[in-house]
Amino acid sequence: MTFLRWVKKALDHLLETLVMVVVAVLVLDVLLQVFTRFVLNKPSSWTEELAVFMLIWVSLLGAAVALGRGAHLGIDYFVGKLPERARLATEVFVFFCVAAFSFLVMVLGGIDLVRSTLELGQPSPALNVQMGHVYLAVPISGFFLTLYAVIALVERLRMLLHKDNTQPV
Questions:
Q1: pLDDT on residue 1
Q2: Which of 12, 56, 60, 79 has a CA that sits 20 to 30 A from residue 133's CA?
Q3: Are 169 and 5 in contact (CB under 8 A)?
Q4: In whole angstroms, what separates CA 12 from the centre of its chain?
Q5: Do the beta carbons of residue 121 and residue 114 sit within 8 Å?
């Protein structure tokens, strides 16, 4: 196994574990919210806010997991009908666009969002958590999306230029 494949596998494992933990916290939080609302008749003031924050994290990190697995939602009906070289060229273009958007908007823009929100010191209403910490999901998921898109882009370019039919990482 090459070093890059080992690094990707380790990052995949880390990211997937993080998503599983966030989903578990989300499920427990929603169960607690239902319990306090319907059994105790005294809704908790913080469980709904935590559920929203966990949903933000799980959706953004889940998008990166899906891209890393090659299972991201896409409309590939027409692309699948193209000849192999045209399909690979289309995938190169798409992964380039994903990498550029993820880096420019999510990583750079996300870092600016987190920095400015932390500078303002904006806390969340119920949990009193700095909103900048919640918004960290944007640049972190952007990093993983950029990384996975670049890996896929390089693989497709290699396949396109060298007519290599090996499977992607």
A1: 59
A2: 12
A3: yes
A4: 11
A5: no
Burial classification of residue 32, based on how many CB atoms lie within 10 Å of its CB (0-12 exposed, 13-18 middle, 19 or more buried) = middle
Q: How many CB atoms lie within 10 A of CB 152?
A: 23
How far apart CA 112 and CA 134 sit, in angstroms, is 14
CB 101 within 8 A of CB 111: no
**Burial classification of residue 148, based on how many CB atoms lie within 10 Å of its CB (0-12 exposed, 13-18 middle, 19 or more buried):** buried
Q: How far is residue 140's CA from residue 146's CA, in Å, rounded to a whole number?
A: 10
Count CA atoms closer than 13 A to 144's CA, side-chain side: 27
pLDDT of residue 165: 52
Residue type, 94: V
Write the DSSP assignment of 43-71 as a string of letters: --SSHHHHHHHHHHHHHHHHHHHHHHHT-
Average of pLDDT values for 52-69?
94
Residue 113, pLDDT score: 97
| CA 164 to chain centroid | 29
102-154: per-residue pLDDT in tens?
A: 999 999 999 999 999 999 999 999 999 999 999 999 999 999 999 999 999 99
For 57, phi then psi, to 5°, come to -65, -45
